[in-house]
Fold:
Amino acid sequence: MQNVETHEHALSGINIVLVEPTHPGNIGSVARAMKTMGLSSLVLVNPKKFPHYEASKLAAGAESVLETARVVTTVKEAIEDCTLVLGTSVRDREVSWPTQNPHTVAKGVFAHINSTSNSCVALLFGRESSGLTNEELDLCQMQIRIDANPQYSSLNLASAVQIMAYELRMQALVKIDCVDEGAASNTAMMTGLEQRQVLATNKQKEGYIQHLQSTLEALDFINTKPPTILMRKLTRLYNKAELTVEEIQILRGILSATEKKIHEQ
Amino acid sequence: MQNVETHEHALSGINIVLVEPTHPGNIGSVARAMKTMGLSSLVLVNPKKFPHYEASKLAAGAESVLETARVVTTVKEAIEDCTLVLGTSVRDREVSWPTQNPHTVAKGVFAHINSTSNSCVALLFGRESSGLTNEELDLCQMQIRIDANPQYSSLNLASAVQIMAYELRMQALVKIDCVDEGAASNTAMMTGLEQRQVLATNKQKEGYIQHLQSTLEALDFINTKPPTILMRKLTRLYNKAELTVEEIQILRGILSATEKKIHEQ
Structure:
């Protein structure tokens, strides 16, 4: 008999990050939605009320997800070990981030997990009222857009998590030994490579962006403070590249060489 | 200009049938889940409490779905005009009905709608506690199985509706003149975007890489000629980013500022 494996176990490593949820009931419903699909890692950024009896009540058997939830104070803290960060939005925005539908994102997440030795994935879900801020979206490699009814796109927080968790589970249950050509080429497309890579964590990328900013200041390339728009564009550019640890080293090496030249003057 | 059509309008004709729902709050949440995905036709078979303020409260803007809901006393009455009836279950049963996942069912629903002049589709969702009876499942052409976590398959009624409604909407939004789904998703993956951006041509990227190389030489960062391995790594890095024309301009601006600093010496 053939022993067919799936990626089901990988679901438990995917982090669902709720940014400043207001209603404790929603946290409970999210826990339930996650557990039905095999997800278990919940991170709460500044929850208004947590722990709370309403969260436990609506978890309805998924209290284990609440008990192991990590509570942090900033999004950066929530994602500092992550190699792939995705943000969710049902709204259109003026500044366009790269967006994908949940199905394509779920494929991309597993392509990332399969091709990365230190993968750590986070899916950010914004506030009930106002979603994610632009600064929070800047931290994301990609934006997930659930293509809702334009006349009524008011998806409940737990419903948005349910849809994403469902799509992740469907991808996780794809048999490893019958990966279709499309999935394989998606993997190559996401990584640009066939070997497993050591991707830079968010913290390492942040370190690079800070180094880049200070070098650009030394070069007099940036002369307004804070040079937000340009730095945001550069952050987004390098996020798209899914930098490896080695690439960060090369890029920082170039910055150091530039700084050295400037100081020789 | 090409006028690309979708089946979005067909969503409003698909009936969501809740069989003997116990909690009025669930009816409201179902209405909301339906409306976010463009569905509007709700049928209630023997609801325990309806109308009810909790249903209206949880509908949260989707009260129109409740107002037009049809209330009947038997499943047969609910589906009497229907040409395709599907039943939902998250549980395994001893007697096996033909089952399909939500994605396949959604495709089947639209195949049915497209090929039937009098199509009327009903999706049955069972009681919160016990689902559909065997007799009710006998009325269905097919059983939908949401492949939930076997350790915790307790999907909320509205969550099950949300997943099905989402899959139906995704199928409804498939362009009628776009046959090859694989090709479409690959295109989306290639661009990483739904909005059109002006991506750099290969020639523009090559120009940037040459500029980068000459700057790195001026910085004494590269001192072997030809510095093939490092430049190949940098080429690959920037190829992963799928640079836009604007991003190339920013990156070349940084290189020019660097060169200027070097020449000031």
Notes: Residues 135 and 232 of chain A are 8 Å apart (CA to CA). Chain A touches chain B through 70 residues (CB under 8 Å). DSSP finds eleven helices and seven strands in chain A. Residues 178-194 of chain A have pLDDT under 50 and may be disordered.
